[in-house]
Write the structure tokens for this entry.
Amino acid sequence: MFHYILKRFLTLPLILFILSLLIFSLVMFLSPYERLAVYIPNMDVTSMSISFDDLVERYELDAPFYVQYAKWLKGILRGNLGWSPSARMPVSRALRRYFPATIELMLLGGLIIFGGGLFLGTYTAVHHDRLPDQVARVGTIVGVSLPGFVFGLALLVIFYAWLDWFPPGRLSMWAEDVVYLSDFRQYTGMHTIDGLLNGRLDIVADALRHLLLPAIAYGIGMLSVMLRMVRSSMLETLQQDYVTTARAKGLLEKVVVKKHARRNALLPVVTLAGSIIARMIGGTVVVETVFNFRGMGQFMVTAARGLDFPAILGVSLLIGLIIILTNLVIDIMYTFLDPTVTLE
Amino acid sequence: MDTLQRLVRNPLGLTGLILILFWVGVAVFAPFISPPGNVHDPYKVIRLSYSSLPSPPEEKAPLGTTGGGYDIFYGIVWGSRTAFRVGLIVVTVTSIIGTLLGGVAAYAGGAIDNIVMRITDLFMSFPFMIAVIIMSVVLGKGLDKVILALIIFGWRRYARVMRSAVLVVRRRDYINAAVSIGAGKVRIFLRHILPNAIFPVFVLAALDIGVMVLIAASLSFVGVGAEPGYADWGQMISFSRDWLLGIVGSPFQYWYTYVYPSIAILTFVLGWNLLGDALRDILDPRMRKIQ
């Protein structure tokens, strides 16, 4: 077990190296002049005494691949990911600012997806073919077909424009003043947790008020996927002999479902968790745009629209790192859930 | 034929089929339903005015116009062609690539299998949406670029599905029989393995058309997809964003700018999902038993 984890950690740098190489080579498809556009935002040639070619040379944009890659990699290892023109700040600082927001959103969304999926999936499987199951069957198909942005916009219209309960953005104006201007300490960058640590419950409440709608909009599609997955996995497990045995022993139905069936039904769900998390990261892009929630997804879209390649590279690298670590955690979790799986 | 009969008898499957046929009809007869303003560039949404305010449904624009005077009815009708083009092209090409890669990997086994599947894993683990955005930065703007980006990253699930299907089929007796007769490898693969392992790919493809159209629409919505003014449902909805909140005292003032395009996307994707689900129930006997 320990050896396996150690081995996986040792291969980590290699995987990261391949990832960085892949991402970097994608950007290198652009011509040096296109990449130069990042450094000169308004491209006003007439007012400049220096030609494009000189600039390309100055930034070494026409150097061989390995030279540019080495230069970039050296920067990264020093924590320097370059300058992001679209955010008007260094990429590393932008990531530090926007990433916690996305994590916060993903945590709440994950709670909806995994918690709701497990509960509703079990519930519908136990009530197979009865009303709740039928409702869920139709509901999940609609949920899967509903684009996140359509659902998000609908929520905004109802709960913001009409009822004025949940505003878009990340914080209200007054709360922003507190967080960024007063002596409020930012420990994690996540407003809910920082609020708790600072003992400011009003900030926590305000942050949650802004988080709730995006988290729901974001969760609904994947909740449907999760629910269906848990449901069909539970239905299969509930037909197994050991479940019949457990019932024959006279165990309470609650114990049979929770201890005997669900634990085994969880295995395929854990396998799927990796791809769900990958989809969740992708989903932040749309949801953050809809709710004007200033997180990593919105940062990435702004960067993409402005051809801001240092930002794109930085975000991709961070996402790659998260994915690799998540998969590692999932593989290790697997051994706890299924004693028959052994790690080589 | 048997499959089609069962599909029609399944109420959800029938609903899906009807929705898809409806949109096929709209896409095919688009020039008659909503004649283009410029015959050479019908995908350019007609602008009835240059007013920044949306205008409500009236005779000239049955579903109203968005800010900028874009005719919503025209955008929805011609947007259906865009949706079909994205969905069908992407799914056709990716399913062929994925099927071949996965099939060959499983059939050849050994090192080839290992290499192909590790590459698939790599593509699989990275968030699809993010990957497509990165590609669209590299390739540039426009719907064709989006289609290309979706193809580059979209084949991975087909490779997985096909591989596991082929792994089952190639152990069957009739494959051994074909080998003992002396049939060549390529012949066995194309004539005996492929036709028997292809069904899961059909199910995935039906579901995938909805998914791809959704993702393309999302890209247009966030502004890295189709060019402005192109008939595309995602973009129609992004036009409505500024008018979402209505005016003070009347929050639903501009309801038509988002309700109609949303219904278009929802019914289109729903149709494919219902069809794919019904197909899965019919083609996968194991699922049939559970359902």
